[in-house]
Amino acid sequence: MSNDYAYKVGGSLSEEAPSYVVRQADNKLYQNLKLGEFCYVLNSRQMGKTSLLVRTMRKLEASGVYCTTIDVSGRGSQNIQPEQWYAGVVYTLVANFQLANASEFMRGWWQERLSISPVQRFGEFIEEVLLNKISGDIVVFIDEIDSILSLQFESDDFFALIRSCYEKRSLNYNYKRLTFALIGVATPSDLISDKTRTPFNIGCAIQLYGFKVDEAAPLLKGLHCVENPVTVLQEVLAWTNGQPFLTQKLCNLISNQYQKFLSVENIVKTQIITNWESQDEPPHLKTIRDRVISQETRAGSLLGLYQSILRNGAVPVDDSPEQIELRLSGLVVQTKGCLKVYNQIYASVFNLHWVEKMLNNLRPYSEVFTAWVASNYQDESRLLRGNALQEKAEGRGQMAEGKIPVRNARSGFKAQ
Asked: Are the beta carbons of 90 and 126 closer than 8 angstroms?
């Protein structure tokens, strides 16, 4: 591999990175933001969202648009209070856009408005300061928005304020110059959870797919050390289905071991799949595993749905909460109206044996669950009811309002 070329395994790619793969989403995000459209890129982790953000922001800045990014995952702990959190966001905007001395601004303008709520102050800041100090078009990228959803205070207000900036365009022309782009692992319905409020139903969703063969040419430069690099890259994509992290990692493994290179399949099996937990650095497969099983209250339903996908090859899309969550894990992908396992590597690591092992670890339900599966999901005597259900619900907080997991051919489980 040439000295000036390197694959990037983990983390975002710089704008000049030679291994950056331009996808359809690159052009779509840029064009929509340039036209003033609110946009959101919501997908699973390690799909290249932040790299896309960096490249798009630099391209917009080159065209004269004022841009900045706010990584809300760096705004402090989950226990941070609204006052501190909103102050941090405003401080970042003041500093990044060089509107004033940020520290002095917070001691003055921000502190002078303590009589109103932090979200109201943020709204006033946008209208009175940001839109007045900057005369051109503005794009604010908000990265890692899923971090907001885990805050201890009500996050609906933040997204409702962003939504109001869009609605004010019909009343105040200045708001047409302000655009937001939301990036993270979430769905639009997650952003405003209060069903009595207007949902976050504005803007353009930017779909981020894996690398296609005709897009992946930049990756060939690092494979020139092997025979038939085009064929090798096609085999790489056949294993990864273009998943960005895995594609970069596999290409990197090949380029670093080209003198011992036997086949793509050999490297996949020996250095990714076999003993995958010890070889998963930087973490990728572990991240998927943890998202699926970390919350015991939903792990059973996600595993059941995934088990159904493995056994049947695919299940029809119905956008149930379980399906949406499994898609956000990155383990499955929507294709032609069906959910399928994303790629061969995932199917090999997270196979039926792994699913059964995880289900057996779910206590105290594993024994009855195993018996229920063995009955082809017909033996309803294995389902918890009455006092037994109430005791488990109260003791573990896992089954609220008398709901129990019941097999469903489309979504794996449903509440009954």
From this structure: no
Tens digits of residue pLDDT in 145-180: 998 888 888 889 999 999 999 999 999 999 999 999
Angle value at C-alpha 67, between 62 and 69, nearest 5 degrees: 130
- Domains in the chain with CATH codes: 24-205 (3.40.50.300), 286-415 (no CATH)
**At which residue do the structure tokens 């497969």 appear?**
285
pLDDT digits (tens, 9 = 90+) for 280-310: 999 999 999 999 998 888 999 999 999 999 9
- Beta strand 178-184 pairing with 39-42: parallel
Please tell me the distance from the alpha carbon of residue 346 to that of residue 240, in angstroms, as a whole number: 8
pTM given for the model: 0.83
Burial of 167 by CB count in 10 Å (0-12 exposed, 13-18 middle, 19+ buried)?
A: exposed
Contacts of residue 169, defined as CB under 8 A and 6 or more positions apart, other chains included, come to 175, 176
CB 176 within 8 A of CB 167: no
Q: How far is residue 335's CA from residue 317's CA, in Å, rounded to a whole number?
A: 9
CA distance 168 to 255: 53
Closest CA to 210 of 23, 3, 403: 23
